[in-house]
């Protein structure tokens, strides 16, 4: 578990062609740059044959392009970390990217997650009870939990931070960690374990959210045993948010589920950009993704240089 105190110039969420290109340009422009790369295989890596990427007369593979781009970015000083992004605090001068590997600080954010989760895979009952007991943000909905039983499912610093916030309202707070142990920093761990109205379980997997008009119960597998837990609210930190749920507070989302930007890749939130396949546009190719990454990073470099001159 990492909790970074370093403030990056730019954090790029996603290591596809758009994110890697932005990382190359930003780090080559002497910006401290971090790319957050989710575990798994992206769409470019899965492309076995690419015949229309410029410069390869006999064609190439998506994996080769990915590896070459990543090496180039690293050579310019770009950092990479494996993490699943859970949310953002993008409104202050120093912005926060919340992940299952800790919270990271930055001045600029570039979203480059590919198509993203237009229709994200949900836990059974998650969509049905969204807004009726299912929430992704304790600080947003905590006031409604006064005197209630609440449950949080997930891992990382964020779930513990959110649980601590809920202890001010809820009568009982159940924390179900999907990892083998509480994976947060020691200070947070000591504080949460000192709360009398908090119960913590590890090795938990959420199976179903149940109820009638409102959440009443959750079914979990805990240490291999299925248990049904009564609860009034369930707060999820599982990375199951779709694009609207994850980005809708900060960016305009098209009817098709994509982030809308201007021609400079800017979203409606200051110093927050979106590039590549996640962005609303007509053509989605490796070449158009690299173009988006070039523009976003170049605009950030230009803005930072301008601010230094002033």
What would a concise description of this structure say?
The chain is 25% helix and 27% strand. The protein is an alpha/beta fold and 310 residues long.
Descriptors for this entry?
7 helices, 15 strands, 5-stranded parallel β-sheet, 310 residues, 7-stranded mixed β-sheet, alpha/beta
Counting helices, strands and paired strands, the structural category is alpha/beta
How many beta-strand elements?
A: 15
Shape: globular
Q: What's the helix count?
A: 7
Radius of gyration: 21 Å
| pLDDT averaged residue by residue | 90
Low-confidence stretches: none
Overview of the structural elements:
The protein is of the alpha/beta class and 310 residues long. Helices cover 25% and strands 27% of the residues. It has helices spanning 17-28, 62-75, 138-141, 157-166, 186-193, 243-247, 286-309, and strands at 7-13, 33-37, 79-82, 85-89, 95-99, 102-111, 134-135, 149-154, 172-177, 198-201, 204-211, 215-222, 225-230, 233-237, 272-274. The strands form three sheets. Strands 1, 2, 3, 4, 5, 6 and 15 form a seven-stranded mixed beta sheet that branches. It starts with 6 loop residues before the first strand and ends with a helix.
């Amino acid at each position: 578990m990492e909790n970074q105190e370093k403030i990056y110039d730019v954090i790029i969420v996603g290591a596809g062609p758009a994110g890697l290109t932005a990382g190359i340009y930003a780090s080559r422009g002497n910006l401290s740059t971090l790319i957050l790369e989710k575990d798994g295989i992206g769409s470019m890596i899965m492309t076995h044959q690419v015949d229309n990427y410029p410069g390869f007369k006999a064609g190439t593979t998506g994996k080769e392009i990915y590896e070459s781009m990543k090496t180039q970015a690293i050579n310019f000083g770009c950092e990479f970390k494996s993490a699943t992004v859970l949310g953002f605090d993008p409104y202050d001068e120093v912005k926060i990217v919340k992940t299952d590997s800790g919270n990271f600080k930055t001045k600029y954010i570039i979203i480059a997650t590919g198509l993203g989760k237009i229709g994200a895979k949900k836990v059974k009952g998650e969509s049905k009870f969204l807004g009726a007991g299912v929430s992704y943000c304790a600080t947003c909905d905590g006031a409604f939990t006064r005197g209630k039983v609440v449950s949080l499912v997930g891992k990382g610093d964020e779930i513990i931070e959110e649980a601590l916030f809920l202890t001010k309202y809820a009568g009982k707070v159940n924390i179900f960690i999907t990892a083998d142990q509480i994976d947060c920093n020691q200070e947070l761990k000591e504080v949460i374990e000192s709360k009398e109205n908090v119960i913590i379980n590890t090795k938990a997997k959420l199976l179903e959210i149940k109820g009638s008009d409102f959440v009443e119960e959750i079914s979990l597998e805990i240490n291999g045993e299925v248990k049904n837990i009564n609860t009034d609210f369930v707060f999820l930190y599982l990375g199951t948010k779709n694009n609207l749920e994850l980005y809708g507070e900060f960016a305009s989302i098209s009817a098709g589920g994509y982030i809308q930007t201007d021609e400079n890749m800017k979203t409606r939130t200051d110093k927050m950009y979106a590039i590549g396949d996640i962005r609303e546009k007509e053509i989605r190719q490796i070449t158009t993704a690299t173009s988006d990454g070039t523009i976003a990073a170049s605009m950030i470099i230009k803005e930072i240089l301008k601010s230094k001159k002033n």
